[in-house]
Amino acid sequence: MLTSLQFHLAGVFLKIFLRNRQAILFSLFFPLIFIGAFSFSGASNDQFTIGVTDDSQSPFSEEFIKNLEQEEIFNLIEGDFESLQSSLIQGDIKGLILIPNNFKDIDNLGALKFYVDASQTRQVSVIQRAIETSLLSVERKIRNIEPLFDLQLEDVKARPQRYIDFLLPGLLAFMIMNLSIAGSGFNIVEYRRRGILKRLFVTPIKPKDFITSIVLARMLIVLVQLSVVLSIALFLLDITIIGSYLSFYLTVILGTFIFLCIGFALGSLAKTQEGIRPIVGLVTFPQVILSGVFFPISSMPEVVQPIVYSLPLSSVVSSLREIANDGVSFMAFSTSTIGVLIWVLISFVIATRFFVWKEVAK
Predict the structure, then answer these.
(1) Which of 107, 201, 268, 344 has CB 3.0 to 4.6 Å from 361, enough for a Cys bridge?
(2) CA-CA distance, 292 to 166, in Å (whole number)?
(3) What is the pTM of this model?
């Protein structure tokens, strides 16, 4: 049962945080900058600009160019060979196709030349396959051959998913981790440096009152800031949370609790702000890289996937992503949800093991 003392202390910690305007702005704008950058980068169709020099000027070459123009990945530019080759060297275009003079005789069409700067283009094989597909289409029309197979693409999702839809839950989990660990770990060290913990130790305030008040204050801060970022993403980037908002925010609350507890443990180990920074970096940085914030964990080598899935941030990211993108309920108790619940217990045990009031207050 929460007491008036705990609410009073939580209010004090909120006032301390609100005085630090730099921390407020940074914690809000850092995720927004990420979201904005990735949303604009994913807005394009990833087209490749390809130059074409047609020395044949035959019906075959015109049909080939027409087929290339129908490829969504290509943006074609026709011109003379010398100017297009110069553009290729400068990196203005990704490839250059030279259609030879004899590309008009059905008995001897010759070979098309595809010029590319492999040092600048990582998708050479993708471009080459698309060109070969266009050539095959021209050949079928010349020989009057119908395709034997027809491939139809069906999306199993209720709506097409953009990269920003995939990214947002990961960035929110990343935001939860940073705000929570900074709110407990760094504050513990700062309160120790300023002698606040030592003065609190000689008062009737119990350790549970202190911890509960910090948890309440940081939980409110995280929920408000996360809601601001989420609202901006929903209204400006047309992102939709498919699942229940109740399940989404329940995962947010549990994730905040996990990283607050981890922050308490880390703050108990360090004596100074200089000492806690490398400790926090050692815990958080590998998780940011490995926990599926920016790319799916399934794309990583299979040998490391079990280790990666066991990280606390991985569980929070996966659970938020399942709710937001797939509409999975928290009460469905998926593997990710169970991972979050397990880490709630583990982090609580770790925090109670390392956060000893008498030792921390020294």
Answers:
(1) 201
(2) 10
(3) 0.69
